[in-house]
Amino acid sequence: MWAAVVAVALGADPVRHFLFGGGEHWVLTDVDGAVVKKLGKPPGDRLMQDAVVSADGKLVVFTAHDKAVNNVLLYAWNLDAGEVRRIGAKEGFHGGPAFSGDEKWVTFAHNPTGYTAKHAQVHRVRPTGEEMTLLGKDDGCHLWSASARAEGEWYVTHAEGKGTAGIERWRNGKHEQLTPATMVDGEPTLSRDGKRLLFTRIAGDGVELLELPLATGKPRALWKGERHGITFRPRFAKDEKTVLFQDGSGVYRLQQGKAEFLFWVNQP
Questions:
Q1: Do the domain assignments include residue 42?
Q2: CATH number at residue 76
Q3: Residue 67 lies in a domain
């Protein structure tokens, strides 16, 4: 499965940044998809796997393999200071980091005893590494990406180990199925007004980007194409009628059903 996680703040729209890429090649963009900066490996020669950036573009939270514990840990990279610190647990598998709307928390999936996402549960921690907390638990299931609308309300990709995954809303201690677990749905991202959910659906060699109005519960397809990877990082752009996404090494801008190529993440 994959980790997709963007948590959105409601209210005034700040200057926002996004991060696209993989391996040694990452690109920081503005909210319209213009390249701001290219990033390589963070200090310590770590290879970022999943990564997200704060709205101001100054703090990158990422997962990377740690040779000492032979597992994937969670880190925060201060781009201005050039410093990296571990913010998750000292061991166990970590995946799918996301900032909360107010950026006071980082949400992620964690399997404290295993080496994969299997049986991972959703946790949160301060960007400084304090107050790591378990948010919810489903025994025998994979819990992967999460996106926070408000305190106590979460959107989670739930995979039951059958090669399928659906999206759930956790609210007031209850889990509500939003998309069927018969598909492979993931990477939920909320609009800034909290009324629409953007997500991906993988089917064979293809991928769809879908939008789910939470008031109706009826998803509609925004775009369908051949997939060249397993992570697409869909993001609502500035006007929220526009979507930015990554397919393979390419980053695209989607408007009115048409995908416009912007850049390759692995080119100078």
A1: yes
A2: 2.120.10.60
A3: yes
Give a yes or no: residue 57 inside a domain: yes
At 191, list the tokens.
């609009």
Q: What is the mean pLDDT of residues 36-54?
A: 92
Q: Which of 7, 70, 81 is nearest to 236 (CA)?
A: 7
Number of domains observed in the structure of the chain: 1
Structural domain containing residue 134: 17-264
Answer positive or negative: Cα dihedral of 62, 161, 222, 260.
positive
Confidence of residue 86 (pLDDT cuts 50, 70, 90): very high
Residue 223 vs residues 24, 93, 96: alpha-carbon distances, Å: 28, 33, 23
Residue 193: band (very low, low, confident or very high) from pLDDT cuts 50, 70, 90 = confident
User: Is 234 part of a structural domain of the chain?
Assistant: yes
Residue 230, Cβ neighbours under 10 Å: how many?
13
Residue spans of alpha helices (H) in the chain: none
Mean of all residue pLDDT scores within the chain: 85
Cα(146)–Cα(229) distance, integer angstroms: 20
Q: What is the DSSP string of 201-264?
A: EEETTEEEEEEEETTT---EEEEEEE-SSS----EE-TTSSEEEEEETTEEEEEETTEEEEEEE
Cβ 109 vs Cβ 97: under 8 Å:
no
**Is 223 within 8 Å of 247 (Cβ atoms)?**
no
